[in-house]
Amino acid sequence: MSMLFAETLKKIRTEKGISQRELAERMYVVRTSVNRWENGTRLPDAAMILRLAEALDVDVNVLLSAAAESDDSPNVIMVDDNRIVLTGGLPILEEVMPHAAVTGFTKPADALEYARSNRVALAFLDIEIGSISGLDICRALLQINPRTNVVFLTAYPSYAFDAWETGACGFMLKPITADSVQKQLTKLRYPFVTGGLCV
What we know:
alpha/beta
């Protein structure tokens, strides 16, 4: 992880003359949380960054930009057992997110193995993948890394209710388009940089 967010937060805090303990009290978190943010071992989510900006009386975009830059080359995966859909979707994801490392998988087991050794920032999952449900893959990905953003892809709107119960942050109907992907990026729980855009 880049140290940009950690350095930015520490610089703003010290310039304001606020101790880690004081900031923690303003944020209603333990001091070790602030320490982790400032030593680069943890990156707060978007909601916490908004609270940090309020506590420090600073423009939230300063912190969001630093957080986005902290994910130097975010890993984005697409899992779909239909090779045609996968082949058509990957170029769209690369177009919308030029700074991301985009990888496609037709087998859920391969996607989960990848996620165990690479921090996945965003996963686009088909809901019906052979005998395995994309809902189950979502749960497995979030067990590996709770900060993974998950967007479900399906041709069946009736799955939407079940999809929301998994902890996913988005739902898209196939076929995907650059516009539909861009709209989903504005709804991510954990923003990252996508070719100059902080989403």
